[in-house]
Amino acid sequence: MKVLAVHPGPLMYTKIYLRLEPLGLELVAEAARRAGHDVRLLDLQVEGHRDYLRMIHEWDPDVVLLSCNYLANVPELVDLAKVTKSRHPDTFIAVGGHSASFVAKEFLDHGEGAIDCVLKGEGEASIAALLRAVEADRASVHRVPGAATAAGEGPPAQTVHSLDDLRPARDLLRHRRKYFIGVLDPCASIEFARGCPWDCSFCSAWTFYGRSYRVVTPEKAVEDLQRTTEPGIFIVDDVAFIQAQHGMAIGDAIARKGIKKEYYLETRGDVLLRNKEVFQFWKKLGLQYMFLGVEAIDEAGLKMHRKRISLGRNFEALKYARSMGITVAINLIADPSWDRQRFEVVRQWCLEIPEIVNISVNTPYPGTESWHTETRPFQTRDYRLYDIQHAVLPTTLPLPEFYAELVKTQQILNKKHLGWTALKSTAKIAAGHLLRGQTNFVKMLWKFNSVYNPALQMADHRRPVVYEMTLPPRHNGKVKGKELFILPAKGRHSRAIDDATEQFVDASRMGTAV
């Protein structure tokens, strides 16, 4: 069959700082291709809806796979499904991805018959079975593991047997030079590990994967790395190098092969301090940039998001990263309860440190514990506002003033790290990019004011809402992890970490014993 895999358009944050290749969709596309199907991939981050409509008109795919990793993309994907079905009624339309897994029923309801199936969990594990069912007997699709249809749901979603079996269809992307993160332009993405053993209340990574943690063997990791042509690499792991031995083994394999790349990764402050030798080694291999999820600058804020790492350890981690010469970006979560004084305290802190500070808004998502336990009333059910840049809970300040203070605080990042300031400090890098025809990084330097604007954010709240989310029922008491999981929890043996690391994880989490 002819299968078209589609990634939705960009969100607010990705319009400036990064545009990552759709690695998850590439993995699903390759799994479909290995099953014998003719597969194409379209990324609406870099192409438009006209390109999509032209492709389905000219190529007439049998199956369209829509990827939904972010909740804010739900309306766009529902509309694409409806227009596709209206023009090609025999085309089978399936939606999958991280966020889609948590709102499968809502997707089907919004689609009003245009969406034939929502495939929950890891798409690589079930896509071949889904396509077999579509080809042989569409009435049997609901029996596929992880499938949700109007006729019912199949068995629970399955876990990929081994990450080593996966391979991304990187060749299917039509505009590979469009992907970047910061100065890494162009940049490919790679996966060394999947899942997270922690259980932060604001995050759905651990609930999606059932608190499992699996790794790619060093040999397979390096094979995939060798297939990338981009000089920059973003390591997509939720927390990089939790297991020191695994990080060192991949590093050793890279060194033996003589691979020269620049790397950007995400990790936790306590993991950095625990595995200093790993990050020191990777600095020699080309690690240049690191994202640390600090989340808060006081103990009360850390407790709110259930991050059991002391403030002192977070600051120690920042200091250590600086000592290695690594450029660090950190995230702080602005709660809607913040007043002017709180914003001002955060602004002063941001001015005093050299790190790149991103400010996001506390947003409960389906699949997170906070989605079920948040006691404040949700102010909107518009999917498009659930992008961590809009307030969906009541604000202490009037909403226009909250956005004014938020953007004023975010503006510090613009003044310190974008525009002419950034161009002066990265002139040589920028010139090199331009000589190679790479303009992503240079263009991003002047986009801040056109994207981050309180008036635009208020206008977003006034847009007509066609698709409304289903809010969670009131939850009395503590929610259990197993009630949130998409992939079944299999306990300790599902985490590829040694006993000492398991004890370290348990000591730094505050949730269930799953």
TrEMBL record:
Any one Gene Ontology molecular-function term assigned to this protein's record: catalytic activity
UniProt domain B12-binding: residue ranges: 8-141
Domain Radical SAM core: 182-395
Cofactor: [4Fe-4S] cluster
Gene3D superfamilies reported in the protein's UniProt record: Aldolase class I, Cobalamin-binding domain
Keywords of this entry: Iron, Iron-sulfur, Metal-binding, Methyltransferase, S-adenosyl-L-methionine, Transferase
SUPFAM superfamilies tied to this protein: Cobalamin (vitamin B12)-binding domain, Radical SAM enzymes
Family matches, as Pfam families: B12-binding, Radical_SAM
Domain of life the protein comes from: Bacteria
SMART domains according to UniProt: Elp3 (SM00729)
InterPro entries in the record: Aldolase_TIM (IPR013785), BchE-like (IPR051198), Cobalamin-bd (IPR006158), Cobalamin-bd_sf (IPR036724), Elp3/MiaA/NifB-like_rSAM (IPR006638), HpnR_B12_rSAM (IPR027564), Methyltransferase_Class_B (IPR034466), rSAM (IPR007197)
GO cellular component, one term: cytosol
Keyword Metal-binding assigned: yes
PANTHER family in alphabetical order: ANAEROBIC MAGNESIUM-PROTOPORPHYRIN IX MONOMETHYL ESTER CYCLASE-RELATED, BLL1977 PROTEIN
Protein name: Cobalamin B12-binding/Radical SAM family protein
